[in-house]
Design a protein that fits this description.
Blueprint lengths: L1 H24 L9 H19 L5 H24 L1 H7 L4 E5 L2 E2 L1 H7 L3 H11 L7 E6 L5 E5 L7 E3 L6 H4 L3
Antiparallel strand pairs: 1-2, 1-3, 3-4, 4-5
Helix pairs in contact: 1-2, 1-3, 3-4
Length: 171
């Protein structure tokens, strides 16, 4: 029974660490996964699996760990839904990139969004100039949404691509 209690405690610690790590590294990293991101997720899951179950690699140990993770995720979702303070602490907020045709270059820089990425999102919506954008938002899921002043164009979401120039040099 002590072993199972240890699994529960370890799962809570790993889950808390992962929530904090994702919060620190930001939502833009999660908006569109590429091969390197999937590999990283698989390696992290393998690394923390041992940290969660410890020496108990039995089916019961694995099922207990999985149950605890599902339960923690359920509680996390309920807490951020019902408690504004916790939601503000753990969740990001959408950020305004363009408002009434005026770009917030300070915010773009803070979020690490290049002007090329912004213009690509605008082009995907059929907008050529910043002055024609009614509202551009960096959403909580890491995507850029654009609302133009032209009512004939529909609202679109731009899935942000990652710039991995440093990985290209390694090949």
């Amino acid at each position: 029974m002590e072993t199972y209690f240890n699994i529960v405690v370890r799962c809570i610690a790993v889950y808390a660490f992962m929530v904090i790590a994702i919060r620190v590294f930001g939502r833009k990293e999660l908006s569109q996964l590429n091969t390197a991101d999937v590999v990283l997720i698989l390696l992290i899951s393998n690394a923390v699996q041992n940290a969660m179950v410890g020496p108990d690699s039995s089916l019961q140990g694995g099922l207990i760990a999985a149950f605890v993770l599902f339960f923690l995720n359920f509680i996390y979702k309920k807490l951020i839904l019902k408690n504004r303070t916790i939601r503000n602490l753990l969740e990001t907020k959408p950020e305004i990139l363009i408002h009434k045709g005026v770009a917030d270059f300070t915010m773009l820089s803070k979020l690490g969004i290049t002007s090329e990425e912004l213009f690509e999102a605008m082009r995907e919506h059929g907008v050529d100039k910043i002055k024609d954008v009614k509202l551009a938002m960096f959403e909580v899921d890491g995507n850029i949404s654009i609302i133009s002043g032209d009512h004939n164009l529909k609202e679109t979401h731009y899935k942000r691509k990652h710039n991995h120039k440093n990985l290209q040099g390694a090949n």
